[in-house]
From TrEMBL:
Top enzyme category: oxidoreductase
Keywords in alphabetical order: Oxidoreductase
Pfam families the record matches: adh_short_C2
Name this polypeptide is given: 3alpha(Or 20beta)-hydroxysteroid dehydrogenase
Organism: Saccharopolyspora gloriosae
Length: 261
């Protein structure tokens, strides 16, 4: 079933990882997809691999001028934008004591400011096109739902993404725009298992404690994003959707290798 047939989707942070998986799912579900990222070479390769339904354009999500340029690309090449997936983000794996002002500022610029500018741009494109409906999917995190040690600034930014989501859902609902937060849990991706920041994390032990007994796959997030962008979720707005293997139903945390239970 093609959930997004006839729709145009923009995905930020789409060169690799979850963003690439989201773009892939949207293409498979029938959408035309504009992939964006600051990693221009990887971005072009990823878009080329998705075929003729995918295009790409560089975008620094924290730069208002870059968003204005991408909005121009949407108007020129697509005519309208039905779905925006604000996926671009970064994580700094530090405790409160280890974190610096620069860590916090950088995280908020990308994770929160990027989402904020994306929402503004989507609303502007929506008004210009005269569309009756639209969907924004903000990629937050389970660390924006529950606390956890070792990524303090990241958690703060993802709580911020959820706050933007709630307020935007209320403000943009009368325009026919739905806004939801997708909250990935432990996903086997470059921002978790593949990130040197977390080399000492015992991912196997973590996965074993989850109700579903495994880490998630990027494709799990892609399918969830496609559903939130589709008309099948037409009465869903302002929600936080955990895709976490049951993490938020438990009280478990990740352990270091060799640590005592």
């Amino acid at each position: 079933m093609q959930l997004l047939a006839g729709k145009t989707v923009l995905v930020t942070g789409a060169a690799r990882g979850l963003g690439a998986a989201i773009a892939d799912a949207c293409v498979r579900h029938g959408a035309r997809v504009l992939l964006t990222d600051v990693l221009s070479e990887e971005l072009a390769q990823t878009a080329a691999g998705l075929g003729k339904s995918a295009a790409c354009h560089p975008l620094d999500v924290a730069d208002p001028a870059a968003w204005a340029e991408v909005a121009g690309v949407v108007r020129r090449d697509f005519g309208r934008l039905d779905v925006l997936v604000n996926n671009a983000g970064l994580i700094v794996g530090k405790t409160l004591a280890q974190s610096s002002h620069a860590d916090l500022e950088r995280g908020f610029r990308v994770n929160v400011m990027g989402t904020f500018l994306g929402l503004q741009t989507f609303a502007e494109l929506h008004r210009d096109s005269g569309a009756r409906s639209g969907s924004v999917v903000n990629v937050a995190s389970t660390r924006g739902l529950i606390g956890g040690a070792g990524a303090t600034t990241y958690s703060a930014t993802k709580f911020g993404v959820r706050g933007l989501t709630k307020s935007a859902a209320v403000e943009l609902g009368p325009l026919g725009i739905r806004v939801n937060a997708l909250c990935p849990g432990p996903i086997d991706s470059g921002m978790s298992v593949g990130d040197p920041q977390f080399a000492q994390a015992d991912w196997g032990a973590y996965a074993a404690k989850l109700p579903l007994g495994r880490l998630g796959r990027p494709a799990d997030i892609g399918e969830a994003a496609a559903w939130l962008g589709s008309d099948l979720s037409a009465f869903v707005t302002g929600v936080d959707l955990p895709v976490d293997g049951g993490l938020t139903a438990t009280s478990y945390g990740i352990e270091l290798k060799g640590s005592e239970p």
